[in-house]
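S.,

Sequence below, as promised.
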Amino acid sequence: MDSTALQLLAESGIDGAMHRARQLTPLMLREADLVLGMEKSQVEAMMQLAPETRGKVYLLDKWLNGDDIPDPYRQQRTAFEYVHEMIAKGVDSWQLYL
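The prediction came back faster than expected:
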């Protein structure tokens, strides 16, 4: 994970040190109850990977503006802060439906 992202998480009381990225598989999608993507293109790619998961794969920002949440990789801390706020709002917007 990017060091800026790790630092921001730590400041929010979240330990991201054990996070490891993995390649998404159709089995992962089938086993999940809900899958949230950051960008529309990710949601589309997931549904192409496992079409039978349609109905549980959504955009994180679905209940707000339906916007893509950009990847701040290799950008300044302010970009990470902006994205962190977007993610937090997106997660909060899902609370009513979980």
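The CA atoms of residues 34 and 55 lie 9 Å apart.

Coffee later?
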